[in-house]
Amino acid sequence: MNATTRLPCALLLASALVACGTTSAPRPTASAPMIEPQRVTEHRGTDDLLTAGLGLEGLRAMAPPAFADAANPTSAELRRRAIWNNWRGIADLSPTGAYGQAYGSVAGVPGREYSALAKVPGATQPHRVLVQVPDAFDAARRCVVVAASSGSRGVYGAIAVAGPWALPKGCAVAYTDKGAGTDYFDLDTQQAAREDGTLATLDDGGLAFAPDAPVGASGVAVKHAHSRDNPEADWGRHVKQAAEFALSALDQAFPQAAPFRFDNTRIIAVGISNGGGAVLRASEEEGGWLDAVVAGEPNILAVDAPGARSLYDYTTEAALLMPCALLHLPAESLPQPPLRAQVEPLWAARCATLKAAGLVEGDTTPAQAESAYRQLRDNGWTDAALTAGALSVGFDLWRAVAVTYASAYGRYGVGEHPCGFAFSAQNADFSARAASDAERAAWWADGSGIPPGAGVGIVDTKLAPPDFTLPGLQCLRALNDGDNEDARRVQTGIAETAAGFPRTRRPVVVIHGLDDGLVPPAFSSAPYVEQARIANPDLRYWQVRNAQHFDGFLALPAYGARYVPLLPYVYAALDQVDAVLDGTRVLPANALIDARPRGAGNVEASQLAIPR
User: Fold this and answer.
1) SS (H, E, C) 484-499
2) What is the percent of the chain with per-residue pLDDT over 70, rounded to a whole number?
């Protein structure tokens, strides 16, 4: 069953700030005016909140849930497919991963979803907010878990992070795409997704993203890249607004128990990766509204802290140097894919072009690889991070992140990228073409928020032999440390994302895998923790041996054999901070966790060595 109710579209934004929180500040009693739900859907019977009725076997299926009409999927079909994609992108659902056995849950949870498009003050484009309210919501123990999507994912991007822990316990879950997400806009047809995921034209109105684009522009606009809002600067406010929206939704869901307020409802924030950074930024928001935070592998920038580096800094460095540097590591040390024999010629070619550009030293490929490797090591990269980073090299993830984030940090619009990059549907030879009806209809459900993917690719106007992507990468790197107008513009945007101090004392657990090759802890969580502890002594840090960034890639046998999943530690930390808030246990201790990978067997709870 999937019944839908449309409500008046009232984007009433909270405009007044409550008093600055301190260690003794009272919690705010209200957060009105609030964003009202625009849409309510019911999910029971063959549908549910947690897996859209797919269950574990459906989530494991290699093919996504099909659309009856590929060019015109229904909102229910799009939701099911978005949930399938986001579960698979975040969790290890492989049979040897033991999800739902050693940890986690995919039990069906009936209930309702409340959703809306919201804007933080000053933004030009909305972010999506969605609240899942289980039928078994415990009104006597009012609980909301607010979660921010990882990466640039859509509004269901944190469903595997928050839903399995919160929904079976009778807590509501509030999600935000934090101003990024999968609301792609087709510039050729002037079409994009509405609040329910279905397509409409710009003239129809009600779009979740409508860019300011030149007349006649072609290709695809992406909200994270082209909103002109630098959404990362507002991640904390996105999270708080999602929590406010949850209280409004609960007032509608349970009018007999209303009002739901920050002072009578427990609010726990959780996220991983960019979502982890977002919930840490939420702890800076004023008012003492937040009870506890769990942040996994957070992308967080602690300025003036030893070792701290921005995501853009180390991403552009890795994009240039890492393909060459990996040749210095023993071939058998790198997990597969990518297959060393297939990529080694490309990596050797990168070494040669770096040498020609004066970026590495040496007259042979091994010497050039060692030069690139030494630069990365001198700048804080560990061998463990480099080894796990091979995956990001193989999937061209460094370039994808750098292209999108340069545009976002500089607040550039369509056609304004300082290095000439754009996005479009593409032919096999990477030339731009118009998107098909079926591709366009699936973007909202299938996209990750950062091309390439879902039929949208990167258009690189600087492609040139012999190392085709190198000119564009050099341009992107120059934005990080250059001194021209565009570089200063991007650097200003990066500075806007810097973390501040937590406003009040509250239980906070930061969890990070020591083998993380995408957001290395040495650049992110470690310097942040040292700085944030000054303001909040109740912050705890769990460092996990043999854990990298992507649980979803543990379904690849070579990765699953050598790395442990991070989600079990997120769920365990939620258990523990919840018990602290109940007064039934003390804060967990800091921990260096000696986790053991599964090898050729299955994940077992005892291998994870979760702190108790």
Assistant:
1) CHHHHHHHHHHHCCCC
2) 94
CA distance 235 to 252: 26
The pLDDT value given to residue 37: 85
Per residue in 226-285, pLDDT tens? 999 999 999 999 999 999 999 999 999 999 999 999 999 999 999 999 999 999 999 998
Please tell me whether the overall predicted TM-score, pTM, comes out greater than 0.85 for this model: yes
- Residue-wise burial string across 5-40, b where 16 or more C-beta atoms lie within 10 A, e elsewhere: eeeeeeeeebeeebeebeeebebbeebeebbbbbbb
In eight-state DSSP terms, residue 286 is T
For the packed helices 437-446 and 75-90, what is the interaxial angle rounded to 10 degrees? 50
Q: Terminal CA-to-CA distance of the chain, rounded, Å?
A: 40
* pLDDT at position 12 over 90: no
CB 372 within 8 A of CB 354: yes
Here the tokens at position 393 are 């090299």
Helices (H), 115-189: 159-166
Residue 191 · residue 440 · CB < 8 Å: yes
Cα separation, 10 vs 449, in Å, equals: 26
Three-class SS state of 317: helix
Asked if 125 and 229 count as a contact pair (C-beta separation under 8 A), the reply is yes
Is the alpha carbon torsion for 555, 575, 388, 452 positive or negative?
A: positive
121 φ, ψ to 5°? Answer: -55, 130
Task: Cite the beta strand spans of 139-196 per DSSP E.
Answer: 143-148, 172-176, 185-186, 191-193
pLDDT digits (tens, 9 = 90+) for 444-481: 999 999 999 999 999 999 999 999 999 999 999 999 99
Instruction: Give pLDDT tens digits for 83-106.
Output: 999 999 999 999 999 999 999 999
- Looking at residue 74, its amino acid is T
Query: CA nearest 495: which of 251, 217, 308?
Result: 308
Length of the chain: 612
Residue type for 139, please?
A: A
Single-letter amino acid code for the residue at 172: A
> Rounded CA gap, 494 and 299, in Å?
12
d(CA 470, CA 454): 24
Query: CA of 266: how far to CAs of 222, 373, 508, 535, 556, in Å?
Result: 35, 47, 14, 22, 38
Closest listed residue to residue 374, CA positions, set 340, 334, 328: 328
For residue 515, count CB atoms less than 10 angstroms from its CB and return exposed for 0-12, middle for 13-18, buried for 19 or more.
buried
Give the residue numbers annotated as catalytic, written as ranges: 273
> Of 588, 589, 595, which Cα lies nearest the Cα of 609?
595
What's the CA gap between 279 and 398, in Å, rounded?
A: 24
